[in-house]
């Protein structure tokens, strides 16, 4: 695959402050908001579509001022979930200001893992974690998925898999979001990342659209599926697509792939398990599906780097 097919993605960058403002024109769906003081410097990747914020911290030490800024922006924008991915030694500083360690992305920084800390924004100041019922639900989903994944062949014949251009992929994204049954948003998760788009089907099944956003400097890629599968053939189509995307990403030296799936979606979990992914986290209230906020399973897959085969 030619690297020229990849598309650079980027949020609108704004030197923003958490104070009321007049909305003179439509605001961008994804925006980079910066907070900087003598002792703190961070960027919020705000996604207004999914009511989700990712924090990119440029200076170690999650001082209370950072938390106050994040919370003020989140409440102003109606955001329900905030996450950050950090090195292991930074986890404790984030948990001290109300975040919860919710998972790990192996190889997120190529040779070290990314630790995902999350925060649910609400009326309570205490950290919100997945309930006991939520944990049990995710376990039932995974157990059912592992059982169903055994029926998916290692070699799939009869599938269709194509790379899409950005215009067609985003047109399909907008159609699905208007219809009201979306999962992926195909919008920036990282700063200055590159994005690829694909569609896939199996034996005349419904065609599914997927996307991979990668940052080759770090070696990780977020995988998004626009809609969840709802039949066995659709599951097979997505499994083959996930496998083929993994092969394509190797060309860009990507070693780590991750994705988020609703914790009650057995069909989508089956696709990830059959494609070689595993659960490495569970996030509280991370995804909005059909107007309902749901917990999310963090699925990850790490490919071996040169020299690791014999480690």
Describe the structure.
Helix content is 25%, strand content 34%. It is an alpha+beta fold and 311 residues long. The chain folds into two domains: 9-120, 3-Layer(aba) Sandwich (Aminopeptidase), CATH 3.40.630; 132-302, Aminopeptidase, CATH 3.40.630. The strands form two sheets. Strands 1, 9, 10, 11, 12, 13, 14 and 15 form an eight-stranded mixed β-sheet that branches. It has a seven-stranded mixed β-sheet with strand order 2-3-4-5-6-8-7. A hairpin with a 4-residue loop joins β4 and β5.
Question: Characteristics of this structure?
Answer:
single chain, 311 residues, alpha+beta, Aminopeptidase, 2 domains, eight-stranded mixed sheet, seven-stranded mixed sheet, 15 strands
- For this structure, the CATH topology of the largest domain is Aminopeptidase
Average pLDDT figure: 90
Number of domains: 2
Could you give the count of β-strands?
15
Computed CA radius of gyration, to the nearest angstrom = 19 Å
Shape: globular
Fourth-tier CATH superfamily name of the largest domain:
Gcn5-related N-acetyltransferase (GNAT)
CATH-level-2 architecture of the largest domain: 3-Layer(aba) Sandwich
Unreliable parts: none
Give the ordered list of helices and strands: EEEEEHEHEEHEHEEEHEHEE
Give a brief description:
The chain is α+β, with helices and mostly antiparallel strands and about 300 residues long.
Lay out the secondary structure:
Elements: E1 7-9, E2 12-14, E3 30-36, E4 41-47, E5 52-57, H1 64-77, E6 81-86, H2 91-95, E7 100-105, E8 114-120, H3 132-149, E9 159-164, H4 166-179, E10 193-202, E11 208-215, E12 220-225, H5 232-250, E13 256-262, H6 266-274, E14 278-289, E15 292-302
Parallel strand pairs: 2-3, 5-6, 12-13
Antiparallel strand pairs: 1-10, 3-4, 4-5, 6-8, 7-8, 9-10, 10-11, 11-12, 13-15, 14-15
């Amino acid at each position: 695959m030619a690297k020229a097919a990849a598309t650079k993605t980027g949020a609108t960058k704004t030197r923003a402050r958490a104070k009321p403002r007049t909305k003179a024109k439509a605001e961008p769906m994804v925006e980079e908001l910066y907070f900087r003081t003598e002792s703190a410097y961070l960027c919020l990747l705000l996604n207004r579509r999914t009511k989700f914020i990712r924090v990119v911290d440029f200076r170690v030490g999650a001082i209370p001022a950072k938390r106050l800024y994040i919370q003020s922006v989140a409440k102003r924008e109606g955001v329900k979930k905030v996450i950050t991915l950090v090195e292991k030694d930074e986890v404790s500083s984030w948990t001290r200001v109300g975040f919860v360690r919710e998972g790990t992305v192996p190889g997120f920084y190529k040779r070290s893992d990314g630790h995902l800390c999350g925060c649910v924004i609400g009326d309570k100041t205490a950290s919100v974690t997945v309930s006991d019922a939520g944990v049990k639900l995710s376990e039932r989903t995974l157990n059912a998925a592992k059982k169903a994944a055994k029926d998916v062949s290692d070699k799939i014949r009869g599938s269709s898999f194509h790379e899409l251009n950005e215009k067609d992929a985003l047109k399909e994204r907008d159609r699905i979001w208007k219809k009201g049954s979306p999962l992926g948003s195909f919008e920036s998760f990282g700063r200055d990342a590159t994005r690829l788009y694909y569609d896939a089907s199996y034996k005349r099944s419904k065609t599914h659209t997927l996307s991979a956003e990668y940052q080759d400097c770090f070696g990780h890629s977020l995988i998004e599926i626009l809609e969840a599968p709802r039949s066995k053939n659709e599951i097979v189509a997505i499994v083959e697509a996930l496998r083929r995307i993994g092969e394509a990403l190797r060309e860009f030296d990507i070693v780590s792939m991750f994705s988020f799936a609703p914790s009650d979606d057995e069909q989508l979990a089956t696709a990830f398990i059959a494609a070689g992914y595993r659960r490495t986290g569970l996030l509280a209230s991370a995804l909005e599906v059909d107007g309902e906020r749901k917990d999310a399973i963090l699925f990850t897959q790490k490919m071996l780097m040169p020299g690791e085969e014999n480690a």
